[in-house]
Amino acid sequence: MLKLVGWVGVIAVAAWAGATTNHGCRDMISSHTHLNYYPVRDMRRSVAVMPQKVSLRAPDSLSVPITGKEWAPDANELMANRDKATARFTDTLVANDDSSVARGERVFHTFCVPCHGASMKGDGPVAAKFMPPPDLLSATTRGRSDNYIYSYIRYGGAIMPRYGQAVTPSMAWDAIHFLRSQQKAHPR
Questions:
Q1: What is the 3 state secondary structure string of 25-55?
Q2: How far apart are alpha carbons 185 and 38 in whole angstroms?
Q3: CATH T-level assignment (fold) for domain 81-185
Q4: Domains of the chain by residue range
Q5: What is the pLDDT along the chain (188 residues), one digit of tens a residue?
Q6: 94 and 174 in contact (C-beta within 8 Å)?
């Protein structure tokens, strides 16, 4: 009886394999045991998405932006008269409180210390090789408006590179709040 059940099972599997793959048991077994993997199965060396071959689609026409787009001044307008061009910038994103100053200190130490130095004198390690940046605690910088400093952080200036891609608007305002708190605590 056991032999009969075994033979019936083998015949049933062979018939099913022939009916489904038309190539016999060998293809049925390999189709169930061989999975379609890339030749390199290591996640460290394989790339799931190739960014250069993926096209980004525009947002849906009915979508609503949640952050909005910041007004960006024209480069010629910015170089001609920075005070007039930056009058539109307002600090509506960040409240000037202790947490903003603490966040600004982290931003300052990450992005500004290489050039302006920890003491804000313009004596950072990068400044020794190039034209030194201004002293951020001096009377000249204290006389600049927040909008002016914001535009220098986000869009750069004569010597300073722009940090608009690395520093978000709220991070820039946090850095300005930290700078103003340091100017009040340590004027020169």
A1: HHHHHHHHHCCCCCCCCCCCCCCCCCHHHCC
A2: 61
A3: Cytochrome Bc1 Complex; Chain D, domain 2 (1.10.760)
A4: 1-26, 81-185
A5: 667 667 777 777 666 655 544 555 555 555 555 555 555 555 555 555 555 555 556 656 666 655 556 666 666 667 677 777 777 777 766 778 889 999 999 999 999 999 999 999 988 888 778 788 889 999 999 998 888 898 889 888 878 888 888 888 889 999 999 999 999 998 87
A6: yes
